[in-house]
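stage 2 :: seqdesign
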């Protein structure tokens, strides 16, 4: 579906995530590469050459609450950090779009609403990465593998397994609180 070489550096991702590096700690390389893999998959799924800055910002923040707020129920903390960043960078007009992408990225059903055109490819791209390419939404196995080679995991998926296990032990009736209908 996409023959373009993977993007391995997006300066805006580093700008946004930089202040959170200490919070992310040893998971820095894993989370950063997850964000970049998702952006690559999103670009391929949407068929667009350029990634809108609002989407890049949403990608940087989409799971950040795991580390910044120490919670596996991270959607709202991640959305709040994104809004704060946008306001502090004089971009309040993008808050709704960025927060919508963050809030919808773990929907179990396809995204709808005014921001679905960006949120749905992002939701799918995140699922491609989280599933390690088992779910591909039409992306070729070769392209997914190419992106994975260019942006190694650095233990990101193992960290998700650990966090899910802790969440299950803490709240067995709500093991994945970030999922949305």
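stage 2 :: out
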């Amino acid at each position: 579906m996409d023959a373009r070489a993977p993007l391995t550096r997006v300066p805006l991702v580093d700008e946004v995530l930089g202040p959170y590096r200490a919070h992310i700690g040893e998971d820095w390389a894993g989370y950063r590469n997850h964000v970049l893999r998702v952006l690559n998959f999103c670009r391929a799924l949407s068929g667009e050459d350029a990634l809108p800055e609002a989407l890049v910002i949403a990608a940087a923040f989409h799971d950040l609450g795991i580390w910044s707020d120490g919670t596996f129920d991270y959607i709202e903390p991640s959305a709040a950090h994104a809004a704060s960043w946008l306001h502090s960078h004089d971009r309040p007009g993008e808050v709704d779009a960025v927060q919508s992408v963050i809030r919808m990225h773990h929907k179990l059903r396809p995204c709808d609403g005014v921001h679905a055109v960006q949120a749905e490819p992002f939701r799918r791209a995140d699922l491609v990465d989280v599933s390690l390419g088992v779910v591909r939404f039409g992306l070729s196995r070769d392209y997914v593998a190419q992106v994975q080679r260019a942006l190694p995991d650095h233990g990101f998926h193992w960290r998700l397994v650990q966090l899910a296990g802790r969440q299950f032990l803490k709240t067995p009736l709500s093991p994945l609180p970030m999922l949305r209908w």
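stage 3 :: structure notes
- The CA atoms of residues 122 and 150 lie 19 Å apart.
- The mean pLDDT is 92.
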